[in-house]
Structures are given as C-alpha cells and as structure tokens.
Amino acid sequence: MTISAPDDAESLAVGALEWLLKAAQDVEGGLTWPGTLDDDEFNPTLYSGTSGVLPTLLDAWRHFGDDRYADAALRGVRSVAAAVDDWEYSGLYTGVAGMAVALRGVHRVLGDTAAGEAANRALDVLRSRYDGAGWNDRYELIVGNAGIALAALWCGDLDLAQLAVGRYPGTAEPTTAGVQWEFRAGAVPRLHHLSHGTLGIVYALAAVGRAADRPDLVDLALAGAADVVSRNEAGPDGFLVPHSDPQQQHEKSERYSYGWCHGPAGDAQVFRLLSRVLPDAPAWPVLADRCWHTVVNSGVPRRIRPGFWDNNGRCCGTAGVLALACDRQVEHGDGRDFADILVADLAARATTDTDGVRWSNHEHRETPSDLPPATGWAMGNAGIIRELLRHVRITTTRDPQYAVSFPDHPPTVRACV
Asked: In which band, very low, low, confident or very high, does the pLDDT at 5 lie, cut at 50, 70 and 90?
C-alpha cells in the first residue's frame, strides 16, 4: 500500500530511519545491514555496509534523543568489531580503515569502551598489513592508500597516517601544470576528482601535512591541485574538470559529472580544506565558490546526463550535492534555496509505504538500470538521512556538525558577521 510521501526533510528522515531499522538483521546479538534487502552477504564497510549506517544512527540519536538509534548503533558495533581481523580489504570506504572510523565514532559519541577497543584493534590490523609501501596497488581515496591515511589521521594515529602517504612523493608524475598520480598501479587513465583521482590524494597530503607540520607534503598537495585546476573547462566563473584523461574507456562513462565522486560537489571539499591549510591564500575559497556556481547552474537535481548517475545517493547523487549546499548555508549563507530544491527532489523520488521511506537509484551501466533500495552510505538510506537531518538542524539554527564527521569532509566554520 502506498501512502502520501512526506514533503519535509525531517519527516523524510524519520520514515527512512524506520525503514533502516526494519532492514537490520540480527546476528548473534549484533546487528548488520545488508547492502540491499535481497543481499545475504555480510558487508561491514563504510561505503555500502554496516559501518556506513552507524554514523547515521548516531546523528539520529543526537537529533531526536531516541535511544532506539543509540541501541542499534551499539549492536551494530558488535558485528563490525567481529569482522575486523578477517576482513580482507584495508581501504577507507571498502575495508578495515573505514571500520576503524565507524567504531571510533561510536566510542567518541556514546563512550562505548568496546567500540574504542575494536577501533584500536582495527588500527593494529592496518599497521600489521603495511608492506613497506602501502596496503594495495591503489593510490586513490575510496580503496587506496590516500583514504587509509585519512582514516588513520582521523582516528588520531599520525604516525600511521604518515606511513600511508609515504609513497606519493616518489610516484608523482610531473605535468605541464603540476603533478598527477595513477589511480591504480598500471592503469592508463589519470582520474582527477575526489573519489578515485588526484584531488583525493591532494586531500590526504594536505591534511596529513598540516597535522604533521610537513611543508613537503603540503607543497606536493598544491602541485596536484594545480594540475587539476589547469584542466578546468568552465571558464573563469565556474569549475568543471573532465572525469579522466585519456577518457576512461567505458561505453557509458560520461566526460563530466557534478556529484561528490567525480564532480565539483566533491572538488569543493578539497578547496575548502586547502583554504584551512593555507588561510592566507585567496585562491582556494574562490575555487570553492566556482565549484558551487557550476553545481547550482548545472541543472541538477534534474536528471540531465548519465554522468550524474541518475542517483539520489551521497556518493554520486543528490544527497552529495545537498552536503555541499549545507556547507554553504553555514559558511556563506547562500545555500538554503538550492538545498530546498534538492530536498524537494528527494521527497518526490522517495518510495513511501507502511514499511517507511526509501530510495531506489539508477545505474546506467547495468541492465536493468533500476536498483533495489539500499541501506548504506554511498547509494542508500543512511547517506541520505545524514544530509536530511543536517539540513534540518541548520535551518532551525541548531548544531550544523555531524555527530561523526567523515575524514574527507571538513567541518563547517560559521562565517563571521
């Protein structure tokens, strides 16, 4: 039975949280969230599994004061903690590094000692897997060493973070404007954006360089940023850089995108960070403004091209753009109108019935293209809920921060008035 969809951000979030709680699976007293309801594989990751749900539950608990959400997060800790030693992958969004972030987040917010001990164990596992150069053949943020560096830094392990960025000075490729990196050893295309490209590496180098007082790392970050900036094709007022060069060869890969993963909604986060690292350099706030200009004038959330993935999610869809709009509301006071448009689009695309609220996404590389509703951060309810709740807090002059920030998203700083 379909019922009327809620049309405001908080009601959408409440309905989506109900669906999310119903989607949980009880495993030996702990809770897990499958990627989709028809997926029986255990997934503890930050990107699409249980670790990505835990920060959303903490946001919901802090927002509503409803202990159901804290209790669910604590039960989720058990399943993630049990997976730390044996999970094969190490990356921020796909492996043990992201699990450490989620576990440390629960420890910090709820004071749960078991979560804190499990986070420490996850860092120990990462340290034991370091092979002298890194953890895998990936340089990028989602899967590779850049993301592991950010996770270690976020968890308070600066030594591990510096190990994780140690390979980048020797693997940087000079370009006419700066430097770039392979996203994976031996891969031909050079990707440019936050999720898999140069800007994700820039973010890690700048963040670790600032924390460790390492000007050499900051300078390398600036050289990487200079290469990407030189590729802008949107003129002096905007910022739009291609997906990759040479263009990644997939018959349905678009050259331009606008979301967090491969577009200016994510690029702006790097420029926001650089404006903190180098507060006297005016170029970085200007570049963040230009990213915002391009996003607002791109036509999204209208589904304008497959490069936006026809998606509601946080990684490559509307919720990721809403995250930037919320940043703008806090820091510049100019994101509210566009944020309202994005929320209205999410409301219009929601499925609402007696089970709650959820979203189905569209994957242009798959047939059929319509995907089942997902639970996690990247393509599911958890990532959308976090942005809806934050939008509510900002518009009602409450705390604009997340209960648990992510390592690749700078906290907002209110503009002086």
From this structure: low
